[in-house]
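Aim 2, interim progress. The first record below pairs a target sequence with its structure tokens.
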Amino acid sequence: MTGCYACGREAGFEGLPLYERIAVDAHWRVVHAVDCALPGWLVLLPRRHVVSMAELSEAEAAALGGWLVRLARAVEVVTGCEKAYVAQFGEAAGFRHVHFHVVPRGRELAVELRGPRVFGLLRAGERAVSEEEMNVIGGKVAAALGEVR
């Protein structure tokens, strides 16, 4: 799909860095959020272009809940956060592809960044988690996913 960041990245799957293919199955791909100031912020993406949850196939829908629970558990193990937020909007230009944010909410997260305001940590520029750190976190999440069921 032209202009869709997720589809563009999926098309080059074999060459993606670890942080963009932390875990995959036939329907879903797990990535670390890019240009984000919060280590461990994951995104779950359908591997085909979908703009509404209503468009998910039965197989995609059946796997979705399991993925979200496993990712929340893995994020809590890897980051030590109190809980993981889960959100789905898909409204930003270039990101209208359905995707689910799995966001670590640690004790140290400032009150003014809690809840939906956590999205203020996106488009972080110089404060963004480095590719190297995203790859390290991605490896830890992949390992944790092998342990959490």
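The second target in this work package is listed in the same format:
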Amino acid sequence: MPLYRDEAVVLRTHKLGEADRIVTMLSRYHGQIRAVAKGVRRTASKFGARLEPFMVVDVQLFEGKNLDTVSQVETIGAYGREIIGDYATFTAANAMVEAAEKLTSEESSPQQYILLIGALRSLSLAEHDPSLTLDSYLLRALSLAGWAPNFDTCVRCGEPGPHSAVAMQLGGTICETCRQGGAAVLGADTARLLGALLSGDWAVAEDYGQNTRSAASGIVAAYSQWHIERGLKSLEHVERG
């Protein structure tokens, strides 16, 4: 039974039997891992609290046929307490880990791992508005997965923007000449905010007011639901400002 070790962030857990849990994690080098954590629901468990959603851990596992088994866990980033203490932060984090689970697989995806733990750390420290952090994370995670949106030029003809509409199925903004039915209306400020969120330019992103932020969040949600198979159920519960 091969033994291996990796860094991982806990995405979700399921109860198993009377005392165990199945833990789904995104690791740095082994992609998604589903493992049994035995006895973690007992009060005497040594590492039960370390295997809660949003925790970043150094984990050692035994490789199994269907599920691996956790043998050791050490905490790297304890973000759970701060995240669950605020509803807006908690709902944003839930949407992030759901997106991460759907955008990754058992293949190694270190960039997705690094992006997720950076976003969760930012949430736990309340560095930015949770809604902005979520929208920035979703745009960048989708980009890493191969669905990079384009908010700078027309996705059909390449004419420089900003443009007044966005076509979800085409992956970005579209000019008036190329615009067809079904494109969503997009204000110039909203396009600029989306570009800032995609690039991580927080100085620009935080200059915009709530109306522009809400419009950008609607575009990000629609773009995510279009490209992520079966959509993101957690987005329904995200608290927007």
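The mean pLDDT is 92. This observation will shape the mutagenesis plan for the next reporting period.
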